[in-house]
Amino acid sequence: YTNGIPGRFFTRVSVKDRRRHMLRGRAVLRRPPRARGFLPGLMSGGTRRRTFEQQRVVSHPVDRIFGVVADVGRYDEFLPFCTGSRVVQRGEGTLSTEISVGYGPLISNFSSRVHLEPLRRVHAVSDPSELLESLEFTWTFKALSERATRLDLALDFEMRSLEHAIMWDLAKNEILQKYIDSFKQRCDLLETAARAAAPRKRE
Fold first, then answer.
1. Which residues have a Cβ under 8 Å from the Cβ of 175 and sit 6 or more positions away?
2. Based on C-alpha coordinates, what's the Rg of the chain?
3. Exposed/middle/buried for 163, CB within 10 Å: 0-12, 13-18, 19+?
4. How far is Cα 144 from Cα 121, in angstroms, rounded to an integer?
5. Whole-prediction pTM value?
6. Is the model's pLDDT at 43 over the cut of 80?
7. What pLDDT is stored for residue 16 in this prediction?
8. What residues contact residue 108 under an 8 Å CB cut-off, 6+ apart?
């Protein structure tokens, strides 16, 4: 007893006070919310490497769409951002090519080795350039019917500059949409020309 009051009363009060202080301490030491980075989702973890895959079905026979993709020497006639293209050397199932591209301030030339598997696959590996440490792309083709083909495109590349990689992140949807659509539009144009050149049947 202390002044006629049981000592356990003070013990209980001190325990409560201690808990209050502990809770207060936890509140003070609580971690602040994690700050979101600038342009979240664009940095890809700070790496300069990018990959992309897309599948699409086009209403053209496999031989036509394969022929358009494999005709690298004519890319500058229909591909957006392509300012020059030529085949330097032809081999059995292989091409050595040079392509010039430009998008805004980004301009570069690519020397590539292209491997062709007729009606099945086009695979290209490019040498390092002003903008890229590496570039590799693969088209695969699968005939679904006489008038339909499934395309699978896979890109794998690494930019020399992280700044350019971020620029790619901002523009990639527009670039890739136009890029893939251009092959289909080229097929449409060739098909229209073939129909116009075909002799008409006599009635």
1. 80, 81, 103, 168
2. 31
3. exposed
4. 15
5. 0.71
6. no
7. 52
8. 100, 101, 102, 129, 130, 131, 132
* Whole-number Å distance between alpha carbons of 187 and 66: 10
Q: For residue 59, give both structure tokens.
A: 């209403």
How far lies 63's CA from each of 53, 59, 87, 123, in Å? 22, 12, 20, 16
User: Of 35, 47, 36, which Cα lies nearest the Cα of 166?
Assistant: 47
Looking up tokens 């599948």 gives 55
Could you count the other beta carbons within 10 Å of the beta carbon of residue 181?
Answer: 12
The token duo for 53 is: 């895959």
Q: What is the DSSP string of the chain?
A: -BTTB-HHHHHHHHHHHHHHHHHHHHHHHPPPPPPPPSSTTSSGGG-SEEEEEEEEEESS-HHHHHHHHH-GGGHHHH-TTEEEEEEEEEETTEEEEEEEEEETTEEEEEEEEEEEETTTEEEEEE---SSEEEEEEEEEEEEEETTEEEEEEEEEEEES-HHHHHHHHHHHHHHHHHHHHHHHHHHHHHHHHHHHHSPPPP-
The answer to whether the CB of 99 falls within 8 A of the CB of 85 is yes
- The candidate with the shortest Cα–Cα distance to 101, out of 164, 185, 187, is 164
Please, which pLDDT band fits residue 33 given cuts at 50, 70 and 90?
very low
